[in-house]
Amino acid sequence: MICFTAALSRLAPLAPAAPLVLQSRFTWLAADVIQAVKDNDLVGMICLIATAIGSILSWGVIAYKALYLHLAKSQTKIFLERCMGGEGNLLHSFQLAGGYQDSPLAQVLREAYLEMEMVNWYQNEKGLSLDAKIANSKENVERAIEIAASKEIHRLEDKLGLLLGIANVSPLIGLFGTVWGILGAFQVVAKEGTAAVGSLAPGVSTALMTTVAGLIAAIPAVIAYAYFYSVVQDLERRMDAFGHEVSNIIQKNVLRRNSKG
C-alpha cells in the first residue's frame, strides 16, 4: 500500500492541471450539417441551391405520378372487372368507360367505339359493298385505336423525362462542387505550404456537401423513375393487347350490322 501511494505521488506532477471530464453527447447526425453549409463558398452554395431545387421538383413529380398511376391502375382494374361482369356488349362497355377518365384502356375503347359508329354511318350513306365496308371500318377503327393509345401513352409518360433528367444532372452538379472544393483546398496548401485544418474547411466542406446534396437529389429520382417506368410499361402492354381485342370485337360487330342491313 505504501509503495502504491509513493508511485502515485511521483506521477502527480504529470497529471493535467485541469481535471479530465469524460462527456457523452448523443447526436442524431455525426456531422454538423448547418455548419458544413455555412462553410461553403459561393460556388458551393450555388451547387447546393441547384440540387435543392432539383430535389423539390423531383419530389413534386414523384407525388404527382404516384397519384396518377395509382388511379390509372385502380380504374383500369375496376373497368375491366365491370366490363367482364356486365352485359358483355360494346355499348355497355362504352357507357362504363365514361366514368373512368384516368384508365387508358377505357379511353381506347371510347375512341374505338365512336369511330365504329361514325364509320358505319359513313359507309351506309355511300352504299359500299360489304367487303369494302369491312376493309374501311377495320382501317379506320385501328387508326382510331392507335391515336387513342398514343395519347394515353403520352399521358402515362408525362413528367418521367423531367424525373430522369434530375436523376442524371444532380450527381454531375455534386461532382462539379466536389472538384471545385478540392481545387480550393489545394490552392490553400500551395499558398501556405502546410495549411492548418481550419483553413482547409471551406474547400473540404464544399467538396463533401455538394456531393451529398447531389446524391440526395438523385437517389429518390432514380428509384421513382425505375418504378414508374415499370408501371407505365405494364399499362402499355395491357393497352396494346386490349386494343387488339377491341378491334376484333368491333370488326365482328360491324360485320353483323352490315350483314343484317
Describe the protein's architecture and organization:
The protein has 261 residues and is mainly α. It is 83% helix and 0% strand. It is built from 8 helices and no strands. Helix 3 packs parallel to helix 8 (197-260). It is rod-shaped. Mean pLDDT is 77; it is low at 1-28.
Concise synopsis of the structure shown:
The chain has 261 residues and is mainly α.
Task: State the main characteristics.
mainly alpha; 8 helices; rod-shaped; single chain; disordered N terminus; 261 residues
Describe the SSE topology.
Blueprint: H1 2-11, H2 33-38, H3 42-85, H4 90-97, H5 104-126, H6 130-157, H7 160-192, H8 197-260
What kind of sheet is the major sheet?
A: none
Backbone shape: rod-shaped
How does the helix and strand content classify structurally? mainly alpha
> What's the β-strand tally?
0
Secondary-structure element order, N to C: HHHHHHHH
Counted by DSSP, the helix tally is 8
Distance between the termini: 122 Å
Uncertain regions: pLDDT < 50 for 5+ in a row? 1-28
**Rg measurement, Å:** 34 Å
Q: Report strand %.
A: under 5%
Mean pLDDT: 77
- Helix coverage percent of residues? over 70%
